[in-house]
Specification:
Blueprint lengths: L1 E12 L10 E3 L12 E3 L8 E4 L14 E6 L13 E9 L9 E4 L10 E4 L6 E11 L5 E4 L2 E3 L9 E2 L5 E4 L4 E8 L7 E6 L4 E3 L2 E4 L4 E8 L8 E9 L2 E4 L3 E6 L3 E2 L4 E5 L4 E4 L5 E2 L6 E8 L6 E5 L3 E4 L7 E9 L13 E4 L8 H4 L5 H12 L1
Parallel strand pairs: 8-20, 13-21
Antiparallel strand pairs: 1-3, 1-9, 2-11, 4-5, 5-10, 6-7, 6-9, 12-14, 14-18, 15-16, 15-19, 17-18, 19-20, 19-21, 22-25, 23-24, 24-28, 26-27, 26-29, 29-30
Bound molecules: 2-acetamido-2-deoxy-beta-D-glucopyranose (3 copies).
InterPro entries: ConA-like_dom_sf, FN3_dom, FN3_sf, Ig-like_dom, Ig-like_dom_sf, Ig-like_fold, Ig_sub, Immunoglobulin_dom
Keywords: Disulfide bond, Immunoglobulin domain, Repeat, Signal
GO cellular component, one term: membrane
């Protein structure tokens, strides 16, 4: 049903100490200070907003509200049919010329012959550049007008829309749940919808809204079992008919728990011990490594033991003689779920026990001969 769209772009540049000087905005009135109103028509669209001034026009007698404002006459862009809506008005907040994303606020349907005030609380941080885009979409449903006027950029808090505090970057390990806490000031109304918007436009709805005190609340969002492709920018949006609150974009970093590429190296084998070198200079996944552990088991037994290691070489004690062991290294990075899978195992055999030094006895190129000797000696 929607045919055309266009954009009006309002650029907002913020300085290190916030939006400076007098509040800016566009009243579209004749004789208003054009330096306070920095806007442009969009390029990638079907038509432009039209500046309407009731004064001195022959349209003064039409059903349009008097005044000076930007408007879209839907009958000039779409043939009429039957219905109730002349179209929709959508508002986008674009940061640093990035993707448009989803509208942070929108309205459609017929809203009578009067103005409605809407507030947009955009949490801005230096040195980013912000653009507010206003898009009118005309429908074939019904002839009518979509108009905007008195766009004010104020450097003090909104009255109706909640303001989000800075949303910090977050780091999680693959497979964990990422929990975003969007803290805002203002009073959320029952009609408020809280969304976590990914930079690509995908949204997650809030799992809970909790009041911290009468002026502050926190909306929580959880992304379950996050994987590497979910690493992206996210922001919080509070949406209601009265307006919208929009936070900054924060980065979700998804890290892969580390795992050694190569097995540990055998430095020496005795009848009851193995001395190994961890060999963890090359890893798969992400650092930093905060813990190293050795997992080992006798090859013929199903259960393994884990020992923490704080040096690059390690002696495994109290092993059974003449037994094959599998030894691998596990690495841990910070955060929940930061332990990676065990690396490839070193498969190594302890030497034979005996009355004599098994080490000198069992040096044999053929293991079978050593086995025979061991069993003979220990019977
Ligand atoms: C809107 O467009 C229609 C059709 O072109 C026209 O008849 C009407 O006068 C326009 N309204 C205004 C206020 O320009
Ligand atoms: C705003 O847009 C969303 C998604 O496109 C839609 O579900 C919602 O109904 C719209 N709201 C209004 C008031 O049109
Ligand atoms: C993630 O959250 C779900 C519930 O939403 C829970 O069942 C699961 O155990 C959580 N996973 C982790 C790794 O904490």
């Amino acid at each position: 049903m929607n045919t055309c769209a266009f954009l009006l772009i309002l650029a907002v540049h913020i300085h290190a100490d916030g939006i400076e000087g007098p509040t800016a905005g566009c009243t579209f009135d004749e004789g208003s200070d054009p330096s306070l109103c920095e806007y442009s028509q969009g390029d990638d669209d079907d038509f432009d907003w039209q500046l309407f001034r009731s004064q001195g026009t022959s349209h003064a007698s039409t059903d349009l509200i008097r005044g000076s404002y930007l408007m879209v006459n839907s009958s000039q862009h779409a043939p009429a049919a039957t219905g109730h809506s002349p179209g929709a008005l959508r508002v986008y907040v674009r940061v640093n010329g990035g993707v448009l994303g989803l509208p942070v606020w929108n309205v459609s349907g017929s809203h009578g012959h009067q103005w409605h005030q809407v507030e947009l609380a955009v949490s801005m941080f230096w040195p980013n550049e912000y653009q507010i885009l206003l898009e009118a979409i005309v429908s074939k449903e019904r002839h009518g007008y979509i108009a905007i006027d008195d766009i004010m950029i104020l450097n003090y808090p909104c009255y109706k829309a909640p303001h989000f505090s800075r949303l910090g970057d977050m780091e999680v390990n693959v497979g964990q749940n990422a929990s975003f806490q969007c803290v805002a000031s203002g009073r959320p109304s029952e009609t408020e919808t809280f969304l976590l918007e990914r930079h690509n436009g995908k949204v997650t709805t809030s799992t809970s809204v909790k009041h911290l005190n009468y002026r502050r609340f926190v909306a929580s969002f959880q992304l379950d079992n996050v994987q590497k492709p979910e690493q992206d920018l996210y922001r919080c949006v509070a949406l209601s008919p009265r307006g919208a609150g929009v936070s900054n974009f924060a980065e979700l970093l998804v890290k892969v728990p580390p795992s050694p590429i190569a097995p540990p190296q055998l430095l020496r084998a005795g009848s009851t011990y193995l001395i190994i070198q961890l060999n963890t200079n090359s890893i798969l996944g992400d650092g930093p490594i905060i813990r190293r552990e050795i997992e080992f088991r006798a090859s013929h037994l199903p259960f393994s033991e884990i020992n923490g290691v704080n040096m690059v070489t390690y002696k495994l004690w109290h092993l059974d003689p003449d037994t094959e062991y599998q030894v691998s290294v596990m690495l841990t990075r910070p955060g929940e779920g930061g332990t990676g899978p065990p690396g490839p195992p070193l498969i190594s055999r302890t030497k034979c026990a005996g009355e004599w030094s098994s080490e000198s006895y069992c040096i044999s190129p053929r293991r079978s001969s050593c086995n025979t000797l061991c069993s003979f000696r220990t019977v």
